[in-house]
Amino acid sequence: IKMLKYIVCILLIVNVFSGTDLYVGYAGKNNNFNTVQEAVNKAASIGPKDESTRVTIHIAPGTYRQQVMVQTPYITFVNDEPSKGEVLLTWYYGIGYKYYSANDNGVYDANAAKAKSAKRPAKQRWGATVLLTNKASNFKAKDITFENSFNRYMTNEELADGVEVLGDSNTSPINVQRTSSLDVKSKAATERGAALAADCGYAEFLNCKFYSSQDTLYTGGSPLYFKKCLIEGQTDYIFGESNVVFDSCELRWKGYSSGSVGGYITAARGEGSYTGMLMYNCKVTKNKSLTVTKGYFGRPWRDTAKVKFINTVLEDDNTIAAEGWGSMSGVQPENVAGFKEYGTKLANGQAVNTSQRKGHILSQADAEKTNIISYLNNWTPSFM
Asked: pTM, whole model, 2 decimals?
């Protein structure tokens, strides 16, 4: 009997310190859910508070069309079987449009979607597919694809949701009505539509993909870490005020089907002890299926913007404009002390001519002082 009690105690201790596993799309498994949001809601009821109580949501390869909001710390999204296909989390909200399914807060509401009694604008963090609120600290994602389809393709779900131009120039100047025949990949039809908005701190992402065109990825909380991720977009497609590191990531120009113009990888701002965005050993590439015009490393959302590109590899000499950096709201890049660059090369190994740059070229000595951990408030991510 004593031995039995001992074994029970050991099992209880192991259970407490191993966290909880939930599943999405795995029929027959215990703790399995049909949607990611249902699993997130279950995780919230469990109430993880540290690594030992972390809730891991295992998502089966497939496409999941739903806006997801995470308001609980210590949650992980993982695709355990990437060889069998991707886990695609996708939604279609775009800024400047209203939908039956949006509630007064501008986020998806199942009751509003069912009632179809009124249309309201998408307005929560640029219509993000996945919203990590400031309560979702220590979030992790591995081998997950985050997409906003708004500027990529039209879905039947969006049309059925009664998508309609908002007609408010203070919110958005766009006046393109969305129909099944609309070319949503054109510059004329493009508006803001985020794949992920991260307002939490201590979040990290490994081998994840982020797809949109304008404002793909919002970095609002600090610190954040992205390792070996792909981020695709065209205008300000990485934006925010976080202390954030992109380590060995691919930054891909999406391009347009028509009306192509150069874009901006980053739009940053920040105050106080803000260290900014660090692009470390990243490569900048181009989508082969659309027309890409050479663009810029970034433009300043505020004159306090801090963005540093270290050891960047460009696909070719038509990837980044000679000036390197653009202006925004009257702020000229040459007046932004935080725009910095070092060691930029082409894919063929040739050094890039930076003589016309409007940003600031670091010396080798200053570049070598760059430390990932210091950018992350002295936090060491588990995916590093």
From this structure: 0.95
